[in-house]
Amino acid sequence: MSISPDTKDRILSTARELFHSRSYADVGIKEICTLARVQKGSFYHFFPSKQDLAMAVIDDMSDDWAHGFVAEAFDEALPPTERLDYMVDAVYYWQKAAKNVEGRMPGCLFGNLALEVSTRDEVIRARLNAVFAKASARFHETLDQAVENGSIPPLDTEATATAMLAYLEGVILLAKTRNDPEVVRILGPGIKTIRIELKPTN
Amino acid sequence: MSISPDTKDRILSTARELFHSRSYADVGIKEICTLARVQKGSFYHFFPSKQDLAMAVIDDMSDDWAHGFVAEAFDEALPPTERLDYMVDAVYYWQKAAKNVEGRMPGCLFGNLALEVSTRDEVIRARLNAVFAKASARFHETLDQAVENGSIPPLDTEATATAMLAYLEGVILLAKTRNDPEVVRILGPGIKTIRIELKPTN
Questions:
Q1: Which residues in B lie closer than 8 A to residue A119 (C-beta atoms)?
Q2: SS3 per residue for A110-130
Q3: What is the rounded distance in angstroms from the CA atom of residue A200 to the CA atom of residue A121?
């Protein structure tokens, strides 16, 4: 066991999987080291604290998302409202696949961490908030384009974008509590009906 | 320190407060006993395990809700759509008050626990699922009445009820991540716009 180029990656992917399938507090550094086959010294070389590891896991997952199915869903080539359908479908197939492997629907790692640690770790909370702001910006862009091309009537696109993200997180939360990805499929279409109206200006 | 009639209540209220403001895993039985001023023996007399305590906390909070602001919000004397406004307002003022006291928005204890423990504790997951089903039933009843009195067009009232509950949980999740109850006030009105259409029968 030595500090090889992939040691950091092994720690990251092990931690990400464990945090996601269980919880942040439930997984210790010792367990991560054992499963990733690294010594504690190597671990602390890359991650001085568990908080540093959590930040790296969040960034890692966020990067994967941004370049993976979020990029596909929010592809400018798709009509704006189809992007919302794509996003819901992607969440459904992702959660269904994860449940097939693990027997349990893991939910959204960001949502899980947000509810578990937000009151106790200001640094992690701020990072998760930034991830959500970035996701919300994709919805915002999409809604602005949908209003511009006339496919939806004018509305408060910024607030509605955040509302749609909230809905997606809430649907995942209930689906995880039922341990049933079908909840995502059934409730998913509701995302396109959410509207926050523009405040009257005068 | 002895097993007095209020010993169980002290344990329950202490655990409920700590689980809510932090997390389930973050709070140990020892800390609960110290703060509730009970000995471990008394604790285990009432709660053979931490899981038993969690179940009692969920039931306790669920009872308080059912007889407190959920009963007020879903008062049959209110027009159905006003019940939804009342529910959103109640969540907003509750979270705002909690943040004023603790400096941190605690979110919904049920949602917090659901994301933290659902993959690891089947018993707690099932109990939380029952709490959500009960909450969803209140929305369902309300929507059925709203359709009946013509204040909203026909829709899949059962699925929309669950969608509204999901939205509320998702809004609380994002608000907690921003540590800002105003998110609930701004996104709240969106709840009444969510619709899941009836499947065409043919």
A1: 21-23, 102, 104-107, 176
A2: HHHHHHHHCCCCHHHHHHHHH
A3: 38
Cβ–Cβ under 8 Å, residues B53 and B11: yes
Tokens representing residue B112 in the block: 């917090």
In Å, how far from its chain's centre is CA B163? 15
List, in order of start, the domains of chain A with CATH numbers: 1-50 (1.10.10.60), 68-193 (1.10.357.10)
Q: Are A196 and B173 a contacting pair at CB < 8 A?
A: no
The whole model's pTM is what? 0.96
ipTM reported for the complex, 2 dp = 0.96
Closest partner CB to B196 (pick from A112, A115, A189): A189
A5-64 confidence digits (pLDDT tens): 699 999 999 999 999 999 999 999 999 999 999 999 999 999 999 999 999 999 999 999
| Alpha carbon of A5: minimum distance to chain B alpha carbons (Å) | 32
Is B115's CB within 8 Å of A173's CB? yes
Mention every residue, 6+ apart, whose C-beta is less than 8 A from residue B113. B19, B24, B54, B58, B124, B128
